[in-house]
Amino acid sequence: MSEHMNEYEYAKKRYLDIGVDTDKAIEKLGKTSISINCWQGDDVEGFLFKENELTGGIQTTGNYPGKARNIEELRQDIDMALKCIPGTHRLNLHSIYADTDKKIDLDEIDTEHYVGWIQWAKERNMGLDFNPTCFSHKMADSGFTVSSVDKSVRDFWIEHCVRSRKIGEYFGKQLGTPCVTNFWFPDGYKDIPIDREAPRRRMKESLDAIFSEKIDKKYNLDAFESKVFGIGAESYTVASHEFVMGYCVKNDKMVCLDAGHFHPTEVISDKIPSVLMFTDELLLHVSRPVRWDSDHVVIFDDELKQIAHSLVRGGLINRTHIGLDFFDASINRVAAWVIGTRNMIKALLYAYLEPTEKLKEIENSFDYTSRLAYLEELKTFPFEAVWNHYCEINGVAQGLDWLDMVKKYEREILIKR
Ligand code: RNT
Ligand code: ZN
């Protein structure tokens, strides 16, 4: 421990040389919570329809042993992950993770089916976020949900979404922190459609119906997620970026920017300040696309750092809800959570450890030489020591110590499933 303290003192001095107060950075970081995607734990299966395959154009690949098969196992695994993640965070649930033994369909979900999660969250001082699950269900088999040409299909999904918002409101009331309820619809065509207008008109009408009840933003915040294409919807995706942005700006909803939902040369770090110029708040699905929307575990790469920089430099962090969205079935799922979440937190710390005001002055005085010099020099600053210190004061494992804990858990628990 003392070794790290010394390292930290040295790092503190180095950062102070360029005008950065590491203690302040740490303090700010402690106030930022990440919404951890529950669905990494069981490959987006949920508990309601065990027999249904994953549809909607998203895929989990891999068959790593030990996935959570029921709610107890999922909770046990999340707890293990939380032990390795510094700070207090949120859990992001999908409707299919209902805590009930009853056989219910998605148009029957109710607050009573999620009471167990409230209890769970309260005990951990965590907030909850929510998502209607508009995929992996027979009513979504046509590839369309709320924009279907079939009214009975639309009505089914509208009902599911209306109920989802009520559950979000209930979470918000019970936990004293607003629930972000995110709407994502896989609707689209594999091949070139005739009519690109009508499905969008139907989706707009369905959304108007879903959002017709006014719910206090103190309790529930609606977000709407866009996408360029999905597997099986390569030629046409109803909830395109323009559609989603238009709807959200006009109807005072949050856009959800998923890092994997754009053309591979586009990055969400640049979209954050643009979207927030015209909406009050924003939801992020921090993910990692590898050639497509593959939802790889988030790594500490340039784009993740740029996302964090966009939030911190622009003073946008208090208007942004940071959610994670990845699901890798080829590695230890607890480790996936730990790696992805720690990386998001690390990226925020990295952004807080920048002399942002000084760099803005440099930029505004056209000194692009110094700008580049500073950014490059910062890359080799003693960041690790500050990160270790943050883990230490939060009582979680430093360095690779967390891996030993997760490996032990794998040997003792996961492998026996
Ligand atoms: C799919 C969207 C969506 C899902 C989750 C499981 O492309 O990104 O957010 O990944 O709801
Ligand atoms: Zn997403």
Short synopsis of the structure:
By secondary structure, the chain is α/β, with parallel strands linked by helices. Helix content is 42%, strand content 12%.
What order do the SSEs take from the amino end to the carboxyl end, as H and E?
HHEHEHEHEEHEEHEHEEEHEHHHHH
Mean pLDDT: 97
The CATH class: Alpha Beta
**CATH H level, superfamily name:** Divalent-metal-dependent TIM barrel enzymes
Distance between the termini: 36 Å
Cofactors and ligands: L-rhamnitol, zinc ion
Query: Which architecture name does CATH use?
Result: Alpha-Beta Barrel
Tell me about this structure.
It is a single chain. The chain is α/β, with parallel strands linked by helices. The chain has a single domain (20-356, 392-416), classed as TIM Barrel (Alpha-Beta Barrel). Helices cover 42% and strands 12% of the residues. The protein has helices at residues 2-17, 22-30, 71-82, 115-123, 151-175, 198-210, 241-251, 271-276, 302-313, 333-352, 356-364, 368-378, 383-393, 401-412, and strands at residues 34-37, 90-94, 127-131, 179-183, 188-189, 220-225, 236-237, 254-258, 282-286, 288-290, 292-296, 320-324. An 8-stranded parallel beta sheet has the order 3-2-1-12-9-8-6-4. It has a two-stranded antiparallel ribbon with strand order 5-7. A hairpin with a 1-residue loop joins β10 and β11 (292-296). α9 packs across α10. The longest helix has 25 residues, at 151-175. The protein is globular, with a radius of gyration of 22 Å. It starts with a helix and ends in a 5-residue tail after the last helix. The model has no long low-confidence stretch (mean pLDDT 97). Bound molecules: L-rhamnitol and zinc ion. L-rhamnitol binds at residues 39, 44, 58, 131, 184, 225, 227, 258, 285, 293, 325.
